[in-house]
Amino acid sequence: MSKDKAKGWHWRGYLPHYDMSGLYQGITYRLADSLPGSAGVPPAPKSQSDAEKAERRKRIERELNNGYGSCMLRDKEIAKIVVDAWTFFDGKRYDLVAYVVMPNHVHVLIKTYEGFPLSKVIHSWKSFTAHEINKCLNIRKIGVRDVRAPKDNSSMNHARTSKVWQNEYFDRFIRDERHLAQAINYIHENPVKTGLCRHAIEWPWSSAKKWIV
C-alpha cells in the first residue's frame, strides 16, 4: 500500500466517512449475506441528520446481532484469518486498539497513521481476507492446496469465488477518552450481549483479554 493523504469527510457509496490521520476510529463491517431483505434498511441519504445516522447504525447492528446468514466468521480458521489480517500491520500502518469477530460481522478500533487512509486500510483487510477465506473453503471442498493453480482443471470449475464482505462499512471517530473507553467496552461486550458467552474474556476472537490488568 503506497502512502496517501487522508480524505477528511467524504462519501463512499451510501455512507459518510471521516478519514484523518492520528484519530481513533471505530469500524464495523459485515458479511455480504448478513442482513435479510426483510430487514428493510434503506440506503442512507446524504441529507440524513447525525441522529438519523446514529439510529440507522443501531438498527443495522441490532439486525446483525440476530445472527442471520452463513455466519462463517464463527468458524475458527476463518476468524483467525480476519484477526491475523488486523494484527499483521499493527504498529506499521495503524495501532490496533480493540477488536471482536462476531459470527456475521466485525468491530475493530484503530488509531490511524499518516499516509495510510482509513479507506485503503479497510480495503486491504477486506480484499486479503476475502481471498484467503475463499481459498480456505475451496481447500475443504475440493482438497486442492492452491486453488489458483489446481492440477486438475475440473477442480477450478468448482472453486468458490463468492462475495465475502458487504461493500460498505461504518466508521466513527472517537471524540475523547470517555468515548474511547465506551467504544472499547462496547466491542468487548458484544459477544456477551448477544448470548455467545457469559464473560467477554471467554470469547476467543476478541482483544478483551489484553485489557485485563
In words, what does this structure look like?
By secondary structure, the chain is an alpha+beta fold. It has one domain: Alpha-Beta Plaits, CATH 3.30.70. Helices cover 35% and strands 17% of the residues. The chain has five helices and six strands, in the order E-E-E-H-H-E-E-H-H-E-H. The strands form two sheets. A four-stranded antiparallel sheet has the order 4-5-3-6. Strands 1-2 form a two-stranded antiparallel ribbon.
- Going by helix content, strand content and strand pairing, the class is alpha+beta
Please tally the β strands and state the result: 6
Q: Report how far the terminal alpha carbons are from each other.
A: 35 Å
H/I helix tally: 5
Main beta sheet strand tally, sense and closure: 4 strands, antiparallel
The helix content, as a percent range, equals 25-40%
Strands side by side in the biggest sheet:
4-5-3-6
Rg computed from alpha carbons, rounded to a whole number of angstroms: 18 Å
* Number of separate domains: 1
Query: What is the mean predicted local confidence, pLDDT?
Result: 81
Elements, N to C (H/E): EEEHHEEHHEH
* CATH fold group: Alpha-Beta Plaits
Strand content: 15-25%
Oligomer: single chain
Question: What would a concise description of this structure say?
Answer:
With 213 residues, the protein is an alpha+beta fold. The protein has one domain: Alpha-Beta Plaits (2-Layer Sandwich), CATH 3.30.70.
Helix/strand layout:
Blueprint: E1 8-12, E2 15-19, E3 24-30, H1 50-64, H2 76-88, E4 94-101, E5 105-112, H3 118-142, H4 153-156, E6 170-173, H5 177-193
Antiparallel strand pairs: 1-2, 3-5, 3-6, 4-5
